[in-house]
Amino acid sequence: MSHIYIVDDDDAVRESLSMLLRSEDFDVVAFGNPLDFVSKVDDLEDGCVILDLCMPELSGMEVMEELKRRESKMSVICITGHGDVPTAVKALKNGAYDFLEKPFDSTMLIDIVKACVFDQMNNQHIEAFNTNAKEVIATLTPREYEVLQGMMDGLRNKQIAYDMEISIRTVELHRVHVMEKLSAKSLSDVLKIAIASGFSYVDVPAITDTHQ
After folding, report:
1. How wide is the angle at C-alpha 62 spanned by C-alphas 120 and 81, nearest 5°?
2. Are residues 104 and 133 in the same domain?
């Protein structure tokens, strides 16, 4: 039985998530106080943590930093009612497995938790994901690299188009190509793949063509 730890100060969220996950035969332990979770984490079995980012006393980001400091093998799925792209990027860079914004679909959460548990038990799968991420990012054209950078910065198509001095329609087409090449179904997938590849703006190849 896989261990799932819920860390959320909202009683209703903890109760509903606990019932949902137990119905899927997960071993669930819920914490309403992040400090309580951190104080006991060294004695807990390795597992998957569903972590609220916005909590009093200790934020979800601070909990993640503490887990990293302790070299914990826990995998973290971040949830928040105040999500935005920069927050998602920061959470993923800090090692989060995935990021969900409240309210989220219960089926999607279960799928992510199951994938998280599977990946945790199969480190080779994670290594393969990172390798594949580098390979697919390398297939992007210079323009697609720039659009990807804009997506990671949380920019709207209109702003990306302005910065690149191309039409919004062209940005939309490049964005579709990026999603297709990365086999991404959502922005979260794009962020995970880009970060796993080690993508950074300095890696963007020089643009020598004038085709837009």
Report:
1. 80
2. no
d(CA 212, CA 159): 16
Tens of pLDDT, residue by residue over 59-115, are 899 999 999 999 888 999 998 877 667 777 888 888 899 988 888 889 999 999 999
Residue 143 forms part of a structural domain: yes
Contact 80, 102 (CB under 8 A): yes
- Alpha-helical segments (H) within the chain: 11-22, 34-40, 60-69, 85-93, 106-121, 123-137, 142-152, 157-164, 168-181, 187-197
What sign results for the dihedral spanned by CA atoms 132, 133, 134, 137?
Answer: positive
Task: Kindly state the average pLDDT of the residues 42-63.
Answer: 90
What phi, psi does 3 have (nearest 5°)? Answer: -95, 130
pLDDT tens digit sequence for 167-196 = 999 999 999 999 999 999 988 899 989 999
Q: What is the pTM of this model?
A: 0.65
Nearest residue to 207 via CA among 128, 156, 147: 147
State how many domains the chain has.
Answer: 2
**55, part of any domain:** yes
